[in-house]
Amino acid sequence: MTTRSGTDARRARLLWLVPAQAAVMVALGLFVTAVPASHHLLATENRVTDAFAARRTPWAGSVSEWLSVVASTEGIAGVTLLCVISLLVLPRTPRRADAAFLGASVAVQSAVFLVVTMCVDRPRPDVPRLDGAPPTSSFPSGHVGASVALYGGLATLVWTRVRGPWRYVVAAVLVLLPPVVGLSRMYRGMHHPSDVAGGLVNGVATLLVMGPVFLSGRTRDTAGGPDAVLPAVPVPGARGGVGRCGADDGPAGGRSGQRAVVVRHPHGCGDDLAERVRLALHRHGYTDQRWTSTSIEQPCGALPEECAEPGVDLVVVCGGDGTVRACADVVAGTGTPLALVPCGTGNLLARNLDLPLDPLGALDTALGGGVFPIDVGRVWGDGLPSTRFTVMTGAGFDAVTVRDTSPALKARLGWAAYVLSAVRHLGDPGMRLTIRVDGGRARRRRARMVVVGNVGALQGGLELLPRARPDSGLLEVVLFAPRGAAGWLAAAGHLASRLVRTGARAPDASPQRPTGGRTVAGGALEYISARRIEIRFAGVQAREVDGDTMTEGSRLFAEVEPGTLQIFLPGAPGTTPSHPHEHERTHTHDTEDTRAPAGAHVSRTPFH
Fold it and tell me: Which three-class secondary structure state does DSSP give residue 311?
């Protein structure tokens, strides 16, 4: 019998073909440059480029310019990022293998291209050029190779994943696009025909290697396919460690006559859903229900007033991460547990707690389990009053993305609206900052984005903060600092690769992890673990907390409050599936004292 691990090992061994691919491309380049200038092959190539230069017209120049932009470094990086994120967030079941195939194909092709250009030095055609010549060899064409990896990869996905006759048209257009890009590059005087051929060979070879690695054995996604996400399994009768909701069995494991305060976001939780939540709570024994609606002025409704009265056994939050944050800010540290009804745009806390994303399913599953403590973060800064967060806070690229997302598109497209906003800010400049963790020395950095997280997974299971756990007693920081398109591709490739690695995560022996900087993806991503973070920016920056835009400012401070929020979860400790990929090779800098302070809380929840 062939095991899954054996199949994955054979796929991984195919990656050794990438160095062979690079060696073949270098050999081809050296052969082309070694051919004497008088050889008939070079003479033919020169006649082709001369003919294109002699027959230029305004309309053809405009078309070729558009094609060059489509296949440029910025264009390829932007389209790749958009497609990868779309594959993760738009389908009901995230297409992780497809996203990894696409991102890895573009990244590997670019890496091979860079290796070849370091070994081969071929001048560009001796004709008037319509574009500025980059400081790389003419062989192979990077535009053509990248367009084959991206658009050829998309054609592969359309052909293998989509049903219906129109897939033939879409796949054909995508396949024809790289050769047309090659013609445009020769038309603009940027490449010889053999350079274009080299780009085609490099791109096709990359797809032939990446396809078996990521797509072999996978057909159109189904609910039970290898990429399917299994829902959390409720554990009837399981009891958590703390909170007042675990005593005395009643209806559906609850206690008859318990009081619940329900905070309802009126747009996310419509009247029909609200009625079903009311009935579900009644079945679980919460017959005394107090309902309150949120507003711009009151993001958690009248929850503070309701909680001021004695006898509240449960707070139910019907909304997204912003509503959860506002409610958690009120109840954290009081011992009153929360239950989530995820009906927002991202629902990231529910995702990271392995709750079903069906609102009623999440409520029933959680109330069938028990109450467990999780951490929250506290954030403040200049013009930013102290407030708690349950998911993430940050500044820079993510904050301007949240700020500039159209509310209308957000209501219509959901999470995908953030993707459209992010694309507009890919070219924004970086920011200079200093960061100090746990009272250590200040470190100077330059980054496009800084995120401080209590949990780490984004939509589709994308692990932005792979070591973040909601019960670790630590916050996780990521500094995103890609240098050029290569940095963007390296970061995208690293994050995408985490989606397809298999194997269970071995639990940490202790949550007291090293707090020094850990860099990956060639320095594009730097991770730090800490209890307290102080960030000062050189200029005013956009800031966000749990998906809500805050006032701009030049300082962002955060600290963890371990185990202060009680929340219903579906299973007892150890029953929730662990998150893979905890351990990875990292580079450690700026080592500091990482011992937890005396009396520090060490939780025992399902996330170890």
Answer: coil
Q: Is 282 exposed, middle or buried (0-12, 13-18, 19+ CB in 10 A)?
A: middle
- What ranges in 120-231 are assigned the alpha helix state H? 142-147, 153-161, 166-187, 193-214
Rounded distance between C-alpha atoms, residue 207 and residue 18, angstroms = 11
CA dist., res. 89 & res. 414, Å (int) = 9
Share of the chain above pLDDT 70, in %: 79
Largest interatomic CA distance in the chain: 95
The pair of three-digit structure tokens given for residue 165, joined into one six-digit string: 């006759």
Per DSSP bridges, beta strands 338-342 and 314-319 are parallel
pTM above threshold 0.70: no
**How many contiguous H segments (helices) and E segments (strands) does the chain have?**
19, 16
> What whole-number distance in Å separates Cα of residue 602 and Cα of residue 596?
10
The first and second tokens of residue 365, run together, are: 């599953």
- Going by their DSSP bridges, the two strands 449-453 and 392-396 should be labelled as antiparallel
In sequence order, what are the beta bridge partners of 588? 518
In order, the DSSP letters of 44-76 are HHHHHHHHHHHT--HHHHHHHHHHHHHTSHHHH
For residue 80, the one-letter residue type is: T
Instruction: Tell me which amino acid residue 34 is.
Output: A
Question: Residue 502, exposed/middle/buried by CB under 10 A (0-12, 13-18, 19+)?
Answer: exposed
In the three-class reduction of DSSP (H, G, I as helix; E, B as strand; rest coil), residue 545 is classed as strand
Sign of the Cα torsion 79, 85, 89, 94 reads: positive
**CA 93 – CA 551 distance, rounded (Å):** 35
CA-CA distance, 411 to 409, in Å (whole number)?
5
Q: Which of 117, 111, 109, 183 is nearest to 149 (CA)?
A: 109
- 393 touches 451 (CB < 8 A): yes
In the 8-state DSSP scheme, what is residue 507? P
Backbone angles phi, psi at 557, to 5 degrees: -115, 145
Q: How far apart are CA 105 and CA 562, in angstroms?
A: 41
Sequence letter at residue 130: L
Residue 195, token pair as written in the block: 């350079």
E-state strands within 511-586? 517-520, 525-530, 532-545, 548-569
Give dist(CA 66, CA 590) in Å, integer.
Answer: 46
Give yes or no for a contact between 138 and 32, defined as CB atoms under 8 angstroms apart.
no
Going by C-alpha positions, the residue among 300, 306, 309, 260 that lies closest to residue 284 is 260
> For the purposes of burial, counting CB atoms within 10 Å of the CB of 54, is it exposed (0-12), middle (13-18) or buried (19 or more)?
exposed
Question: 432 and 478 in contact (C-beta within 8 Å)?
Answer: no
- Stretch 434-440: mean pLDDT, rounded? 94
- Residue 440 makes CB contacts below 8 A (sequence gap 6+) with 515, 590, 592
Are 594 and 512 in contact by the 8 Å Cβ rule? The answer is yes
For residue 459, give the DSSP letter: G
Find how far residue 197's CA is from the centre of its chain: 35
Task: List the single range of 97-101, 277-281, 308-312, 417-421 with lowest mean pLDDT.
Answer: 417-421
Cα pseudo-dihedral 393, 395, 398, 400, rounded to 10: 130
Instruction: Between 479 and 418, name the one with better pLDDT.
Output: 479
